[in-house]
Amino acid sequence: MLTELGLADGLAGVHAGIPREAARWELVRWLLRLIVNGSLAPGAGGDVIRYEGWGALARPQALRPLVDKVEAYNAREAVCGGTREQMAGAIVAEARRLLADPWPPLDRSGTSPAGHIVEQAVNSPAPS
User: Fold this and answer.
1) Angle subtended by helix axes 20-36 and 84-100, to nearest 10
2) pLDDT by residue (tens digit) across 4-17?
3) Closest to 103 in 3D by CA, of 83, 125, 119
4) What 3 state SS string does the chain have?
5) Residue 66: how many CB atoms within 10 A of its CB?
6) Per the confidence metrics, is the pTM higher than 0.85?
7) Residues of 17-54 as b/e, b for ≥16 C-beta within 10 angstroms?
């Protein structure tokens, strides 16, 4: 999907040979950064994270608060009640919080899924 949209060049590790799970976490981090810096609308970015990140990563608990905020943003009550702007702000705030914490985010048990793989792969040169 990212290659088709012409977005793959901005994503670390797409062609670097890093493991699929680590690449998914990097995709999530990249999308969170776009949401925080205003390059991607919070609702749209949250939807992509929900599908391409949260769902593909077997629904990690660390992303649950973000997913809950995205679902609230998309809820009929928010759309009809005019609270989507507030919900968008909540998505941005959660994205900022996730980026401020260790990456990938810790789950409730205090362990980081594939963390050593992500940091090692991202900080290593791409294979020749």
Assistant:
1) 130
2) 655 555 555 455 56
3) 119
4) CHHHHCCHHHCCCCCCCCCHHHHHHHHHHHHHHHHHCCCCCHHHHHHHHHHHHHHCCCCCHHHHHHHHHHHHHHCHHHHHHCCHHHHHHHHHHHHHHHHHCCCCCCCCCCCCCCHHHHHHHHCCCCCC
5) 27
6) no
7) ebeebbbbbbbbbbbbbbbbeeebebbebbbbbbebbb
Helix axis angle for 20-36 and 115-122, nearest 10°, is 80
Question: Count of CB atoms within 10 A of residue 82's CB?
Answer: 9
Q: Give the whole-angstrom CA distance, residue 26 versus residue 23.
A: 5
The residues near 32 (Cβ < 8 Å, ≥ 6 apart) are: 45, 49, 95, 98, 99
Reported as a single tens digit per residue, the pLDDT across 37-91 is: 999 999 999 999 999 999 899 999 999 999 999 999 999 887 777 788 899 999 9
